[in-house]
Design a protein that fits this description.
The chain is an alpha/beta fold and about 210 residues long. Helices cover about 30% and strands about 25% of the residues.
């Protein structure tokens, strides 16, 4: 029996890290978080795409720790706002409440056709040297509510309405959201790639 392999989630967002860890449950890897590496600092997200930012974070963490790293970059895209908040989804305010307030202020009195939005997530895997070993992307369509609904999730979940469920992401259970979310889609692609042994290096014993 091989030793557990380690995989470090390159995120300092507790909600996101928990969500990713839950979606990776059952894989033949030992999932770790940045809480185990308090000296590691994520770089400024200077990339011009979600993929570039995810790769930057994962590579930085891998080089700093010597671990395989999995990073995601994700955001909410509202076409009526010319794609905002987009790459700056986490930076328009300091808190989730502030981000939602920022969005709702700009969406005030917008008609239904202009309330369409989508979440996008890009996940990148890097090896201990920081080389990108895989990239996966997920996307989910919805619309922006006029007021928050639900107490679950994080980020913009309370104002993102998912039509097929008839609920906001924050009104869905973690399992329900994971089944359809942008992050769930990307991570299921990662799981499938790993299960198919697309990354033989990752299947080698890394030492616990």
């Amino acid at each position: 029996m091989t030793d557990p392999r380690r995989l470090l989630i390159a995120s300092q967002n507790p909600g996101k890290a928990r969500e990713i860890a839950a979606l990776l449950k059952g894989l033949p890897v030992q999932v770790r978080s940045l809480a185990d590496f308090p000296g590691v600092v994520l770089p400024e997200e200077t990339g011009e795409t979600f993929a570039a930012n995810a790769a930057l974070k994962a590579a930085t963490v891998s080089r700093a720790t010597g671990e395989w790293a999995l990073a995601d970059d994700s955001g909410l895209v509202v076409p009526a706002l010319e794609g905002a908040p987009g790459l700056h989804s986490a930076r328009v305010a300091e808190t989730d409440e502030g981000r939602i307030a920022w969005l709702l202020e700009r969406m005030a009195d917008r008609p239904a056709p202009e309330r369409e939005a989508y979440f996008v997530c890009v996940v990148v895997l890097t090896d201990p040297e920081g080389k990108v070993r895989g990239t996966w992307e997920g996307r989910v369509e919805g619309r922006i509510l006029e007021a928050p609904r639900g107490a679950g999730g994080f980020g913009y979940d309370p104002v993102f309405f998912y039509e097929s469920a008839g609920r906001s992401f924050a009104e869905m259970t973690r399992e329900e959201k994971a089944a359809v979310s942008h992050r769930g889609q990307a991570l299921r692609q990662f799981r499938a790639a790993l299960s198919a042994r697309a990354f033989p290096q990752l299947l080698e014993a890394q030492g616990a």
